[in-house]
Specification:
It is a single chain. With 294 residues, this protein is of the alpha/beta class. The strands form 2 sheets. The protein has a 6-stranded mixed beta sheet, sandwiched between helices. It has a 4-stranded antiparallel beta sheet with strand order 2-1-4-5, covered by helices on one side. The N and C termini lie far apart (51 Å). The chain binds adenosine-5'-triphosphate and magnesium ion (MG). Adenosine-5'-triphosphate binds next to strand 2 and helix 1. The site of adenosine-5'-triphosphate has 11 residues, from strand 2 and helix 1.
């Protein structure tokens, strides 16, 4: 079994803020990734890389495999074939045993994930939600974890909600807590699976704004979203996938306005009018309306 243990610290001296994404090494490398659910071949041999500090937006029709791909990168789902490397840790998929489990655990520790449905513990306060994993998984003291939680809550603009319970805050606030919770583990990579699609339209902008701040601070992010304004302003690259394969990838401008593949064109025709509308509705997170130049 080829399981490369993590290099202890991956290029600490080169923080994402200091290194342009084009010069830096890939943080994420996915090679020949396959996932089946029974007979359903959901990911059909995917290859891609994400450099440190890069923001990649993944889009595609329902059922194309976007969530499955994110879940395979942090091994919430186990791919049957291929290789996933995150931050110097490589997992050969389809294996088992202690070395495999150790590598999977090491990859998971480097990935923070934010889901459409927040997934906060309802019986725990905002702070308790954030400190749980660092205490349990990283053995952080309660004091240290609480201090970090306070800093993160300030970053997501929720210092005044530290002692509230999830039922007492809005959907947008819940999602910002979920982002703070994921960040509390100090991940190298953040995975977002349609983080705004369960939100009322007026709450979307505040979550996109937090994500934008995170991207500007140099976080490496893979984001499944159809928020085209966000993609245009924040993404370095967009990948369009359909039927478990990558159809086309490019800069947002090129992919949205000059797609090469017919499947991409069809999909964009379907979503772009809505995307343009959604940017108008919450410009705070998405920027100015999309302009068509063709
Ligand atoms: N746990 C599972 N068991 C069986 N089939 C699954 C499972 N999870 C996903 N699938 C199937 O895999 C395919 C890809 O699903 P996935 O959730 O990755 O799509 P998606 O692109 O995220 O779609 P959406 O935009 O609706 O979220 C779908 O056909 C789905 O029904
Ligand atoms: Mg999905």
């Amino acid at each position: 079994m080829t399981v490369h243990e993590p290099s202890p610290v991956v290029n600490e001296s080169s923080s994402p803020q200091q290194v342009s994404s084009h010069q830096s090494e890939p943080l994420v490398k996915v090679e020949g990734l396959h996932k089946w659910f029974g007979k359903l071949h959901v990911l059909q041999g995917l290859d891609f890389e994400v450099r440190r500090g890069e923001v990649v937006v993944l889009l595609g029709p329902s059922g194309s495999g976007k969530s499955t791909l994110l879940r395979c990168i942090n091994f919430l789902e186990e791919p049957q074939k291929g290789r996933v490397t995150v931050g110097g840790v490589t997992v050969e998929c389809g294996r088992w045993g202690r070395a495999y489990q150790r590598a999977v655990h090491a990859v998971r520790l480097q990935c923070g994930m934010v889901f459409q449905e927040f997934n906060l513990f309802p019986h725990k306060s905002v702070t308790e939600n954030i400190i749980e994993a660092p205490m349990l998984v990283k053995g952080m003291s309660k004091e240290e974890a609480t201090k970090r939680a306070r800093e993160l809550l300030e970053k997501v603009g929720l210092s005044d909600r530290a002692d509230y319970f999830p039922s007492q805050i809005s959907g947008g606030q819940k999602q910002r807590v979920a982002i703070a919770r994921a960040m509390a583990m100090d991940p190298q990579l953040m995975l977002f699976d349609e983080p705004t699609s369960a939100l009322d339209p007026e709450l979307i902008g505040e979550v996109l704004k937090v994500m934008k701040d995170l991207a500007n601070a140099g976080m490496t992010m893979i984001v499944v979203t159809h928020e085209m304004g966000f993609a245009r302003d924040v993404a370095d690259r967009c990948i369009f996938m359909d039927g478990g394969v990558f159809v086309e990838e490019d800069t947002p401008e090129h992919l949205f306005f000059h797609p090469r593949e017919e499947r991409t064109k069809q999909f964009l025709r379907h979503i772009l009018p809505k995307a343009e509308d959604s940017v108008e509705r919450h410009p705070g997170g998405g920027g100015a309306p999309l302009e068509f130049d063709s």
